[in-house]
Amino acid sequence: MNGFTPELLDRCISCGFCLPACPTYALTKDETSSPRGRITLMRALEEGTLPGNDLRLQEESSFCLGCRACETVCPAGVQYGALLEEWRDRQWQGTRRPLIVWLLMSAVNSPWRVRLLGLFRRHARTRPSPSGPHLMLGCFERALYPEVSRAARRLHPELAAPAAQGCCGALHAHNGDSARGRQMAAELGERLPGTIVTTSGGCAAHLADVLGRDRVKEISEYSTGEDLPETGARIALQDSCHLRNGLGVWREPRALLERMGEYVELPSAGSCCGAAGSYALVRPRDSARILDAKLDEIEAAGIDYLAVVNPGCHRQLEQGLRRRKSSVRVVHLAELAAGAVRPADR
Amino acid sequence: MKTVSRGEPMDATVLRELRAIVGADHVRHADGDVAAYARDATPLFSARPGAVVHPGSTEEVSAVLKLAGARSVPVVPRGAGSNLCAATVPLSGGIVLVLTRLDRILEISADELLAVCQPGVTTAELSGAVAAHGLLYAPDPGSRTVATIGGTIATCAGGLRGLKYGVTRNYVLGLQAVLATGEVVRTGGRLWKDVAGYDLTRLLTGSEGTLGVITEATVALTPAPEASGTGLAYFATLADAGRAVARIIGSGLLPATLEFLDARCIDAVESYARLGLRTDAGALLLFGDDGDASPVGRHLARMAELCLVEGALDATVAGAAAESEALLAARRCALPALSRLGSVTILEDASVPRPRIAEMVDRIDAIAGRHDLTIATFGHAGDGNLHPTCIVDAGDTDATERAHHAFGDIFRTAMELGGTITGEHGVGAAKLPYLTERLGAGQMALLRRIKAAFDPAGILNPGKLGS
């Protein structure tokens, strides 16, 4: 079993500047559920002063959303996301990995399984291109929101979108199998030569980590000069955590939305909605606690659309707002930009 | 250096009674549950408590202390754990009493210019809430976004506004505190003038959790200044910057902010904040003022001019408010940013009379050289408060040992120049070994007698002040 990379773990000086940025610390006000506290736990695991089967170690490695909001406020430059991957690599082995996560990982573990997910869905599909640029279809996004890839291609017809491309491996990387996660990203990079454009902020961050920042463009980074439809609507945004905190992309989607309607900045736009990849499925109650405050805010903002840039956030917010019978529609930014949302849909 | 890896397990009866007081959810005692409370923001100090308790009211705090007193269990009060003197490390095990659940602002009174809040509110939360009423809570420690009001009062935190506004003690009007016996006392109140009795409010302020547990604070506010601004000057050496500080203050100006960074700190801060700071300079002076817009502008221009007179390489006034805020935010991050140079940053807090700053900085450099160490220095030039920070690699025990010797030298030098061993971080466990040199045996004995009057059983934060 691999240990932690010493340089990553040593970087933290326990100043505590991360505490106010952490959604789970905000919920609990408990040091143990803060980034600094979790790093203290990782160190205890590394030094052997806590055993790997300690219940609290197990619980905290799962309770963390992995949103990486702590990284943006860390003056010491701690790469918390990388540490969390190493932590779960150690702790989420065998039966300790939640069953639902194991099932999801299995479902995307090979290109044919990913293809199967989208088999009867009308997602974009074209022949591969020898030099790109390519559109990444995603694994669950192609099944849950096939209209997003169609919108992306309407916006950018030059994007090739072959169905046989596989999954980027972010799910594996975040759930205890970072080696496989990196391998999957590398394989996807070989299948899709040239620039890879993605409609999923989470995938963008993982792919960029493995393939290099230059190879990967999230759709709002890629879309700059297009004619955009004026919707006349009030639109807010939910950032994708890894897109914002990992890649530093947050101005770009706002700039696009401002051109399409009256942009409304939600106070918590930059903080996690509780979807957090598979978190909403593994820890539905905690996920709902994180989401609730945000839903109040969205309902109070008097907006027509809530734009998202990641399928996990899409599903989380759509379900949350539906439960509240809200009239706010959750749409992917690409759908708005491609004019795929009809006024009657409002 | 004190390192204790495991605390004594807590007695099962005590745990049962603690659960009866605060509820089972708010008592934790398993190894993994208490591990994160073994340390605060101070490097090299670590000791696991036997239990961590999160009380939800003053009554619960009182009941916990009564129980602890009866069973002779040590109790260490803790806010967010951002202190830099190991004040909240439970050296003798026992209970870490975490006040973060008490996080409500109870009152903001614009008429009386005061706020009443619970100890777990952060400094930034309180500042933000009173700012919405056009008011200012002046204490401004670097850790403002993290540090709780309870913690900043218990350590009498300083910060970036010390020269013009003073420090935390100047803003505490009244406290509610629970003594080690479980007695709940209210000291001071809502009055600016009140000399009835010993000033127990001031005694509790800076007592580092050794005399009582603060459960509510009434703090003084001022009207928020209409405008504020900052400027930057670069110098070839820190000594030049020191002379500019003397000249600015000698000219009759009282800046709200007067902060400096040496070359190493400039590098580290720039690599985090990317503000375009000049990394070829030997020192940076950040000056600022607040008040009515017109005098603020005049004062800033005058400060820039005086820096140039003292040989500044460059001196400019920040244009927009956002730019000023970015500069101040970057300055607050100086310490953690320094950890980019090495994994352990041992920070000190010596303070000298303002005219001796340049001399002190030179002496620190000489001490660093003598002990073959990398020491970066930043601090509050206006207060004479320096933060020499020694950067060593984790596991380099030899360098750590040398650092301890170097800091001994630094403290003695500061005292020789008429200064002190800690300006604003506190004594805690980290500086207790040097306290006798600073206060003398007679005063140490007086501290112990005061401690005994508040805490006869000696259960509150043992091994710290008054022990």
UniProtKB/TrEMBL annotation, chain A:
The entry's keywords: 4Fe-4S, Iron, Iron-sulfur, Metal-binding, Repeat
Superkingdom field: Bacteria
Gene Ontology MF term list: 4 iron, 4 sulfur cluster binding; metal ion binding; oxidoreductase activity
SUPFAM superfamilies: alpha-helical ferredoxin
4Fe-4S ferredoxin-type domain segment(s): 4-32, 55-78
Protein name: Glycolate oxidase iron-sulfur subunit
TrEMBL record, chain B:
Cofactor: FAD
Provenance organism: Streptosporangium canum
Family, as annotated: Belongs to the FAD-binding oxidoreductase/transferase type 4 family.
Record lineage: Bacteria, Bacillati, Actinomycetota, Actinomycetes, Streptosporangiales
Record protein name field: Glycolate oxidase
Residue intervals passing through the bilayer: none
InterPro entries reported in the protein's UniProt record: FAD-bd_oxidored_4_C, FAD-bd_PCMH, FAD-bd_PCMH-like_sf, FAD-bd_PCMH_sub2, FAD-linked_Oxase-like_C, FAD-linked_OxidoTrans_Type4, Oxid_FAD_bind_N, Vanillyl_alc_oxidase_C-sub2
GO MF entries: FAD binding; oxidoreductase activity
Sequence ranges assigned to domain FAD-binding PCMH-type in this UniProt record: 45-224
Domain of life of the native organism: Bacteria
SUPFAM superfamilies: FAD-binding/transporter-associated domain-like, FAD-linked oxidases, C-terminal domain
Keyword Flavoprotein applies: yes
Keywords tagged on the record: FAD, Flavoprotein, Oxidoreductase
